[in-house]
Each structure stands twice: as C-alpha cells, then as structure tokens.
Amino acid sequence: MSTLFDKIIAREVPAEIVYEDDQVLAFNDINPQAPTHVLIIPKKPIATLNDLSEEDAALVGRLPLVAARLAKQLGFAEEGYRVVMNCNEYGGQSVYHIHMHLLGGRRLNWPPG
C-alpha cells in the first residue's frame, strides 16, 4: 500500500523539497511545530522502526547526517535543534514510512507542549 510519503517521492503529491539525494528526501512539514520543521525520509519504504533490518543501518544512518547538514544550512545548528522519530500509534507515528522530524528556529522546551 502506498503512503503519502511514497507519493511525495514519486512526485504524485507536491511538497516543498529542501534536500534530495539518491537515498533520502527532505521536505517541509505541512503542519509545522516550530519555525523550521523538516521531514527527512529514506526513499526506501520502511513502515516503522520495528521493521528495520541490519541492511538498513547505513541508509537510516544518513537521516541524522542530513538533519545536521540542513540545520547548518538553515542557520540554527549552533543554537540547537531537535530530531525526533516516532514509532507506531502510541509513539505518535501517523504516516507508516519511517521519517525523522528536524525542528529548529526557536528554543524547544522539554517536555513539549
């Protein structure tokens, strides 16, 4: 079954793409929780963190590297930022294609809310 993110990768659904390489795509979240809220996804469809295999280690390891690169390019790497990955319903996952949230551009309090 195709997810919203699969459709964004295939360019069937528009998104404001901020980064792309052969393995990873990053785009602005349509419901931002911070001044900058970017979703970073592997192009390979993996439903949840529970579905990862050893062969996915290098691919998934690229996600925080892209997050750090974008934080620097967007000008908030030194001040700080948050990266989050959710897993399944109770973890807050709403699209079943793993993704990393990059949030920055303001002080992020913990716990959120």
Automatic annotation (TrEMBL):
InterPro entries in UniProt: Histidine_triad_CS, Histidine_triad_HIT, HIT-like, HIT-like_sf
Top-level lineage group: Bacteria
PROSITE patterns tied to this protein: HIT_1 (PS00892), HIT_2 (PS51084)
Pfam families: HIT (PF01230)
CDD domains: PKCI_related
UniProt motif (Histidine triad motif) ranges: 97-101
The HIT domain, residue ranges: 4-113
Transmembrane segments: none
Catalytic residue list: 99
A GO MF term: catalytic activity
Family matches, as PANTHER family: HISTIDINE TRIAD HIT PROTEIN (PTHR23089)
Name of the protein in its database record: Histidine triad nucleotide-binding protein
